[in-house]
Specification:
Elements lengths: L1 E4 L2 E8 L2 E6 L5 H19 L11 H12 L5 H18 L9 H13 L4 H17 L3 H4 L18 H12 L6 H11 L3 H5 L6 E2 L4 E3 L12 E3 L2 H12 L12 E8 L4 E12 L4 H11 L7 H12 L4 H8 L3 H10 L1 H13 L36
Antiparallel strand pairs: 1-2, 2-3, 4-5, 5-6, 7-8
Helix pairs in contact: 2-3, 3-5, 7-11, 8-10, 8-12
Length: 387
């Protein structure tokens, strides 16, 4: 039934025992009639689980829809990773229809990316993006039995030697970025991740109790964990705090700031400091310091250095896990990764069993029964087994 409210047409009908009374959002009776018909048809198809036929989608158009759908739920970094993956995928497979994609296409993509010198781990991440898109359209199950991910090496990273650490820290001290040295020293003494350091606020650092509380983290186990500050970390954080006497709890420890040349020696001067914004990146300063120090290492390897040094000192891996913020699954994986180091602590543990037990004291006999009145030690009889 069609009827008007003011200038707008409405429709009313009953379907499956329910009354539908909705505005057609038009002042045309003909359009209102067609809107009612379409609404009925949609309800009928939904009720009978009938799917409307859609034009076949290419991987390109499907990826656009998928990204739009996932954007609200993905972390900014994860969203950027997915977009980066698609930049490699779409030039090769973007025009393929979803229904035409098969395991041979995936294999050819593997070969294409390997020729471009992409790492197997990177390629697997890109295939994971394709898999997510196809799963949304219920098409991955057909490919899965014939698709194999590339094997990857389980590299635990590189730990800094004391010599390389000194060279690196010297160059960080000479860096144009004045926050690089404090950031690297904190990383080496707390095991905090790059993003955890970059987004650290002063309210998270307790210089009286000598602790720092991590904010957002890569894992649920890492978020909110409290890390004790050793002497080295406490000194550098106290020194850095003194550079900002007007700091507020909500301010970032490593604030956004710009540099310019100044003075006779053209030493960099700091300007445009905005403590309400975190520093964007240490990438340029970090790469320059590494190059000058002739040290090949990633920032994440500072975290590997922390793990290696603690395990070599015999710290239980369960304690290391709480400091580093590992999830239970990651802890299990790290036990395998750092097993060669854990063996040192295991050796120290079994060495403790080498302590020989003390010999029991010999029992003494009761006094009396002897002519001289002295006590006499009675040796216990040996058993046949000891003979």
């Amino acid at each position: 039934m069609l009827y008007r409210r003011g200038e707008t047409w409405w429709y009313k009908f009953v379907f499956a025992g329910r009354v539908f009374r909705e505005s057609a959002k038009t002042n045309s009776k003909e359009l209102a009639r067609r809107a009612e018909t379409k609404r009925r048809r949609d309800l009928e198809e939904g009720y009978h689980a009938l799917k409307k036929r859609q034009a076949p989608q290419t991987l390109k158009s499907a990826s656009d829809d998928w990204l739009e759908l996932k954007k609200p739920t993905l972390a900014p970094k994860s969203y950027l990773i997915e977009k980066t993956n698609l930049k490699h995928i779409l030039p090769v497979l973007g025009q393929r229809l979803l229904t035409d994609l098969d395991a041979n296409d995936i294999s050819r993509y593997h070969q294409h990316r390997l020729k471009e010198k992409a790492a197997p781990k990177t390629i697997n991440l890109e295939i994971g993006t394709i898999r997510a898109i196809l799963r949304r359209h219920r098409l991955w199950a057909n490919l899965q039995p014939d698709v194999r991910m590339l094997s990857t090496s389980d590299d635990i990273g590189k730990a800094l030697s004391p010599e390389d650490e000194k060279k690196l820290l010297d160059e960080c001290a000479d860096s144009r970025s004045r926050s690089l040295l404090p950031a690297v020293l904190l990383a080496l003494n707390t095991g905090m991740r790059y993003s955890e350091l970059r987004l650290l606020r002063w309210k998270q650092a307790d210089l009286e109790r000598l602790t720092v509380r991590v904010g957002k983290s890569k894992t649920e186990a890492g978020a909110g964990r409290v890390i004790p500050l050793n002497d080295r970390a406490a000194k550098i954080l106290t020194f850095w705090a003194d550079q900002f006497p007007k700091r507020e709890p909500e301010h970032f420890v490593f604030a956004s700031e710009k540099y310019g040349a100044g003075g006779d020696k053209f030493e960099p001067t700091v300007y445009n400091v905005d403590p309400t914004k975190a520093i964007n990146s240490w990438k340029e300063a970090w790469e320059s310091a590494k190059e000058r120090a002739s040290v090949t290492i990633r920032f994440h390897d500072l975290r590997h250095t922390v793990v290696t040094r603690m395990l070599e000192a015999g710290v239980p891996i369960s304690v290391v896990a709480t400091i580093l913020g590992w999830s239970p699954a990651t802890t299990v994986r790290m036990v395998k990764r750092y097993g060669h180091i854990g063996a040192i602590a295991q050796r120290q543990a079994v060495e403790m069993l080498n302590v020989k037990p003390k010999k029991p004291s010999k029992p003494k006999s009761k006094q009396g029964g002897h002519k001289n009145g002295h006590s006499e030690t009675v040796e216990p009889k040996r058993s046949a087994v000891n003979d």
